[in-house]
Amino acid sequence: MKVCAVLLALLPGLAMAETFELKATPQTVAWGYYSAAATPVLTIKSGDTVVFDTLITSNPTALEKAGVAPADVQQSLRDIVSTVTDKGPGGHILTGPVAIEGAEPGDTLEIRIQKIDLAIPYAYNAFRYGAGLLTDEFPYPRMKIIPLDAKKMVAHFAPGIDIPLHPFFGSMGVAPPPDFGRYDSAPPTIIGGNMDNKELVAGTTLYLPVHAHGGLFEIGDGHAGQGNGEVDITAMETSLKGTLQFILHKGEKLPYPRAETPTHYISMGFDDDLSIATHKAVLGMIDFLVEARHMSRDDAYMLVSVAGDVDITELVDRNKGVHVMMPKSIFTQH
User: What is the CATH number of domain 15-102+114-189+211-251?
Assistant: First the structure.
């Protein structure tokens, strides 16, 4: 008993941590924006866990027209589409915002993605004129419904084509600085947001800089899977349920979003210019290696060149995304 008491005294936050469930309803979603002025729908403490219900970014009419049976369209989606009028400037249906007690600008929010579950047995992929990498080649709209097999964890894209499922949230972000106003949910930036990074699956930890009181975390844009680039502007869009734990790091200022998987460190860069986005991502990894691995700046630059992978995250959200993958296995000393 004494040992247990000592452990609880040393880890009070862990001992008192709670788990909350946040359903997607007309009262608990932000449609198309991140904002420092938004009212939180839930307030938690550092160490708490939230089970988020998130919805496919579409509308019932479009899904039914593409072939989804009316009974398979979630009632929560119908309720939100029919009643929420405070929308934009973006189009994503995001669950939140969630405030973290004590979070202030200059802090860092650690988000441990513990579990991601499929919520519906289908996804869609769609393109339209005016969006996507090859919009002039495909000057018309099309939506394709893709059945998802949760038991085999594959998507039946077409006869003879099954795609392994790797569910992740395309959008996870915090509120921007107040001067940003209501920020469009589409282009990723210093808040994270619509990063569309397929590496952010269950087991990954995301780190976001805090820019506003409470942090104000939002999540959505569920993807059953995606290719790097997301070239036609959508992935396998679906509804997901995610279990995330939040850890607040007071006074630890992070300049830019980054992440960590069981096997890799990840830095990110976002900009309308792909070259600038790449510069940001590479510099971010160099800075991380200098700080966390105590390398010289010269050696860090060299290591990115000989061991890091520079990948295009997405090309279609106005701000392009680039991320650098650095394998942990190369570090023989901890």
Answer: 2.60.120.580
229 alpha-carbon distance from chain centroid: 15
CB 207 within 8 A of CB 111: yes
Among 184, 191, 170, 29, residue whose Cα is nearest residue 95:
29
- Return the closest-CA partner of residue 260 out of 236, 288, 230: 288
Which amino acid type is present at position 159?
P
pLDDT tens-place string over residues 156-204: 999 999 999 999 999 999 999 999 999 999 999 999 999 999 999 999 9
- pLDDT tens digit string along 286-311? 999 999 999 999 999 999 999 999 99
Q: Which residue in 213, 23, 194, 2 sits closest to 101, CA to CA? A: 213
- Helix, strand or coil, per DSSP, at residue 206: strand
d(CA 31, CA 96): 10
